[in-house]
Amino acid sequence: MPINLLIVEDDLSIAEMMSDHLNKEGYQIFHALNGTAALERFSQGEIDLILLDLMLPELDGTELLKAVRIQSFVPVLIVSAKDSELDKALGLGFGADDYITKPFSLIELSARVKASLRRATVYAGKDGHSQQSHPQLRVHELSLDPELHTVSKNGNEIKLTGKEFQILKLFMLNPRRALTKEQIYRTVWNEDYFGDDNAINVHISRLREKIENDPSSPQYIKTVWGIGYKLGEF
């Protein structure tokens, strides 16, 4: 099956340049001129990666990214003329996977697309080969088995509740992404989020007690102030 890319760009010349190049790379391309049209197309499903401009009419790129992250963790590559460190930090903080500034080379664009798609694929096995029949998620000393529903640290099994397991799995599937409390709640509880942090805070605290060497100074589940949480990097 083809890999479907959604280009969200209001500059037709840039959109056509990106579309032509990526189409030659073998991708199926969809294009939206504004954030509203992009969200409508994305909601129809079967989009594998979004290339997102931040300065868009009707619904800007940041708001579109927030809306997408509420319902999906599809890879998002920001392609923007905004090149300040603050803009990059905000984009990545709201859930983008990568950030490329205009003007850019088409070779770099292809490489960033491939890297984002590759990071979205779960690999098991230390030899680098995918084991789709029985994937293992590993981060430093932690290992999570989605099929057997088990977690171990240095080979020693850790007993988690169902919600704790789902929260940890969510972080391990999204190792580079800061997750908001709303994203965590909607994904794990599968319910609308009304701003009550208590349930999430309690489960994060209990999970840290079980997986961290020092829960008061967590290394696996880090707090991202003003946003939520993310998986620590080792």
Count up the helices. 8
Number of domains: 2
Mean pLDDT: 86
CATH class membership of the largest domain: Alpha Beta
Alpha-carbon Rg, integer = 19 Å
Give an overview in words:
The chain is 38% helix and 20% strand. It is built from eight helices and twelve strands.
Structure summarized in a few sentences:
By secondary structure, the protein is of the alpha/beta class. The chain has 8 helices and 12 strands. β1, α1 and β2 form a beta-alpha-beta unit.
Summary keywords:
single chain, alpha/beta, four-stranded antiparallel beta sheet, Rossmann fold, 20% strand, 2 domains, Arc Repressor Mutant, subunit A
Give the helix/strand layout:
Layout: E1 4-8, H1 12-24, E2 28-32, H2 35-43, E3 49-52, H3 61-71, E4 76-80, H4 85-93, E5 98-101, H5 106-119, E6 137-139, E7 142-145, E8 150-153, E9 156-158, H6 162-173, E10 179-180, H7 181-188, H8 198-211, E11 221-224, E12 228-231
Parallel strand pairs: 1-2, 1-3, 3-4, 4-5
Antiparallel strand pairs: 6-7, 7-8, 8-9, 10-12, 11-12
Helix pairs in contact: 2-3, 6-8
